[in-house]
């Protein structure tokens, strides 16, 4: 535990809340050692020893509850209640609660925002095949995105042979449709499909990236 750690405004070092193990009763089952998430215990000679006693969470008594032989004891709960009253901790507790709620709200809002972005389709890859020769397909693509918040990227045209292209041998093209403003592009996709259809090309695949 950090030396200056506080518990709702009270220095932790001033709060004598920690487990005490009766070594004669302890059977070394290690349950307290494995249960405590605060690293309070070490096992020494098959006995649980609370070596970091002040790391114990004030008010927690979980290890005492689970110990099969009741070897672990704690101070009386009155000790904690008395400290709460004497130090008037509830003003600080309310402030801490307000901050915690604000943090939780921010995390929730962030999760919602991330979920919304994840649901957006902002990039779709198309693979098409057919004869591109004299159809000015690229020019039509350019016209389609002109003055719209979309773009075609990663264009890749595979032409088997130049002579083949002249003889109208089918070629293969892939490209991705994106939004220049990271918006959902679903609305734009029918226009892309229509462009492909209008040019007599075959839509091989369409996949969200
Ligand atoms: S849970 Fe009890 S018996 Fe088991 S190691 Fe801890 S103190 Fe010992
Ligand atoms: S009471 Fe809780 S925090 Fe403290 S030693 Fe036991 S399990 Fe760990």
Please explain how this structure is put together.
Helices cover 35% and strands 22% of the residues. The chain has helices spanning 31-35, 62-66, 78-86, 90-119, 137-145, 162-166, 189-198, and strands at 6-7, 10-11, 20-21, 42-44, 47-49, 72-73, 123-130, 150-158, 171-179, 202-208. A 4-stranded antiparallel β-sheet has the order 8-9-7-10, covered by helices on one side. Strands 1-2 form a two-stranded antiparallel sheet. Strands 3-6 form a two-stranded antiparallel sheet. The structure holds iron/sulfur cluster (SF4) (2 copies).
Low-confidence segments: none
Query: Which sheet architecture does the biggest sheet show?
Result: 4 strands, antiparallel
Instruction: Describe the oligomeric state of these chains in a short phrase.
Output: single chain
- Derived from helix and strand composition plus strand pairing, the structural class reads alpha+beta
Strand content: 15-25%
By DSSP, the count of extended strands is 10
For the largest sheet, list the strands in their spatial order: 8-9-7-10
**Straight-line N-to-C gap:** 47 Å
Alpha plus pi helix count: 7
Radius of gyration: 34 Å
Which small-molecule species are bound to the chains here? iron/sulfur cluster
Shape: elongated
Mean pLDDT: 91
H/E element sequence: EEEHEEHEHHEHEHEHE
Helical content stands at 25-40%
């Amino acid at each position: 535990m950090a030396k200056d750690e506080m518990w709702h405004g009270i220095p932790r070092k001033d709060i004598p809340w920690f487990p005490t193990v009766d070594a004669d009763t302890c059977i070394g089952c290690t349950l307290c050692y494995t249960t405590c998430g605060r690293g309070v215990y070490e096992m020494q000679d098959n006995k649980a020893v609370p070596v970091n006693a002040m790391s114990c969470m004030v008010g927690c008594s979980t290890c005492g509850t689970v110990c099969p032989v009741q070897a672990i004891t704690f101070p009386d709960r009155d000790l904690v209640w008395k400290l709460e009253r004497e130090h008037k901790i509830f003003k600080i507790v309310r402030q801490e609660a307000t901050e915690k709620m604000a943090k939780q709200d921010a995390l929730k809002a962030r999760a919602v925002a991330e979920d919304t972005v994840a649901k957006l389709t902002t990039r779709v890859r198309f693979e098409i095949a057919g004869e591109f020769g004299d159809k000015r397909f690229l020019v039509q693509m350019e016209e389609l995105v002109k003055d719209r918040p979309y773009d075609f990227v990663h264009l890749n045209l595979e032409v088997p042979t130049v002579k083949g292209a002249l003889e109208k041998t089918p070629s293969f093209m892939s490209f991705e449709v994106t939004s220049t403003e990271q918006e959902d592009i679903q609305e734009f996709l029918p226009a892309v499909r229509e462009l492909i259809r209008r040019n007599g090309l075959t839509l091989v695949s369409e996949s969200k990236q």
